[in-house]
Amino acid sequence: MCITIYSKPDCVQCSATYQALNRRNIPYQIVDLTKNPQALAIVHALGYQQVPVVIAGTQHWVGFRLDKINTLAENL
Asked: What are the alphabetically sorted keywords of the record (predicted)?
């Protein structure tokens, strides 16, 4: 499963999300919304206005969601 995190620099919730994924050895890629207008359009099309936006397969969510990260770890 490919996990993409849409984020911006100096985002506390983004950093917490990276750390939680790293502790569980879950690979992910980061897309910086400040440098990628197309990615920003994707995030807005999903209805999100905050970061991080995490897309994992068919699921997506916004913010630091340890419950979602734990579920990902269980299903990998």
From this structure: Disulfide bond, Electron transport, Redox-active center, Transport
Model confidence pLDDT, tens digit, residues 7-39: 999 999 999 999 999 999 999 999 999 999 999
Specify the number of domains making up the chain.
Answer: 1
Domain that holds residue 52: 29-56
CA gap 32, 39 in Å, rounded: 8
47 lies in some domain: yes
Q: Is the bond into 27 cis (omega within 30 degrees of 0)?
A: no
